[in-house]
TrEMBL record:
Belongs to the 4-toluene sulfonate uptake permease (TSUP) (TC 2.A.102) family. Pfam families: TauE. InterPro entries: TM_pro_TauE-like, TSUP. The chain crosses the membrane at residues 6-29, 36-53, 59-76, 83-102, 108-127, 148-170, 182-201, 208-225, 237-255. GO terms for cellular component: plasma membrane. It is a multi-pass membrane protein. This is Probable membrane transporter protein. It is found in: Cell membrane. It comes from the Bacteria. Keywords: Cell membrane, Membrane, Transmembrane, Transmembrane helix, Transport.
Amino acid sequence: MSAEILSYFSTIQLSNFELFLAFLGAFLLGVGKAGIKGIGVVIVIIMAIVFGGKPSTGVLIPMMVLADIFAVIYYHRHTQWKYLVKLLPTMVIGVLLGVWFGNDISDAVFKQLMAVLILGIVILMIFMDRKKSDVVPQNRFFSNSIGLLAGFTSMIGNLAGSFSNIYFLAMRLPKNEFIGTAAWLFFVINVFKLPFHFFIWKTVSKESLLINVLLIPGIILGFFAGVKLVKLINNEAYRKFILIVTAVGALVILFK
């Protein structure tokens, strides 16, 4: 199998630097799924540089499912199921809308709109923190809107993390509950997305799966490195870190 993988890489003529970038993307994916949230934008950009925009989504999705499995196993006991029940229905609808419109929507307009929305909600979250307000967390329209946007952006560009981060911060979940709930949420959504990548968009292929096999060590190393990093961050520092990185990620999307 390893010979076949290497043979495939030689046919698509990836440079050593591109191979390094792909491994770095896999490593960061593991780190992110272990709980260092907000780096999804960086991962998506790296993979898009190496494989191209839409093809990179097919490379990423099986890797994300594998990393989700690690996260679900490790953080399962911290999952807050009531928040999954609130988000999943509208996320599923968002994914279906993403499948439908994915081939037609302007990539530039999509990225700019998403970046503005993320920045707007981050500003709202900062305002909430200062006012110690809990009005938004009790608002059903807020959870439904976040779920719809997260599902749509998840299908289009694997960028739902920014919206889910904001939602779980709004719910004021402690660090481990945040990570455990997000782990199950994205495991379910990413498994749901797989058939669309296989049979409709056709972005997952034998060749892309061979690439995934080669990058598995990067995911594993990243996950265990991420677990160690998470243990070093307390709840309050974790909350601030997620807000800052999410805002930076939105700016990267906006000006990329």
